[in-house]
């Protein structure tokens, strides 16, 4: 924390700020399924789901997930394929694999009780400083900071912090600020209120300052610079990757699917055969047929081009040319290569892009 920010904290009415923020949250908080109680497991699942995903998107996934895996024990004992299927469409699948692994550890080593100390909870797979702080403060009432992008945006405006929030080193500044400001009587509401304020009022662009319950405490509003904060350097542009993919059927109408590697992007999810290409459109079919022969030792023929799908990840963008086609000879099935009926597809988790491919195929 630099001297300027320390000075603002020295002059800051912390108690009044806590009161105004918590009172607003108590009156105006959204009714969300993970707020129905303080069950640390439910809070943990919700926080993992909410990483890089909107609340409206998460709600039906959360309800379905908790219905299928209502407890630590239920999730710990669940088959990975079923867990991935429950997460299908939410993206960032490493989140749920880490959650599943960590829940097994809690079940085995902590008697099914989510740890309630910073040291133990932070040692769990996939539980970073934010998630640890959220669980400890919301479920256990401990005054631990839970600093995410929302919170950094809110506090950069309230405390006039000009440090670049895209830099990992800046997080320490905001964690220090939360430790100074957090209510020890009600850390749960305090942390949730900061998140809620960022989601509903202190938004990235055009913050609703006139509706803000802590406007009189906000240094950026006082100086008229709320539109300039937070400082955040832009991410690098995504790398563009062109792919040829095909929904291939055999003589019995079964579809060929392949399981992705257990490490890396979309690990352990199923997909339709696809290959990266730098070739022109006219060479797609020949390139794909050669790939199938080399990779799967099978002869296929491609019919019409049934569409194009663009799918954006954090670091890359897929531009997928989708075909339908036929398998002309027997396929050597394995644990990672299967021929399945449409009904059997329901038991396999697919990335969103490949769900879209299936829809295009079924339309044709």
Structure explained in plain terms:
This protein has 364 residues and is α+β, with helices and mostly antiparallel strands. The chain folds into 2 domains: 3-228, Endonuclease III, domain 1 (Orthogonal Bundle); 239-363, Nucleoside Triphosphate Pyrophosphohydrolase. It is built from 16 helices and 7 strands. The protein has a 4-stranded mixed beta sheet, with helices on both faces. Strands 3-2-7 form a 3-stranded antiparallel beta sheet. Helix 10 (149-158) crosses helix 12. The radius of gyration is 25 Å and the shape is elongated. The model has no long low-confidence stretch (mean pLDDT 94).
Taking strands numbered 1, 2, ... along the chain, how are they ordered across the largest sheet?
Answer: 4-1-6-5
> What is the CATH third-level topology name of the largest domain?
Endonuclease III, domain 1
Query: CATH H-level name of the largest domain... which superfamily?
Result: Hypothetical protein, domain 2
Gap from first CA to last CA: 60 Å
Query: Which sequence of SSEs, written as H and E, runs from N to C?
Result: HHHHHHHHHHHHHEEEEHEEEHH
Main pleated-sheet profile: 4 strands, mixed
The helix-and-strand class reads alpha+beta
Count the domains: 2
Low-confidence stretches: none
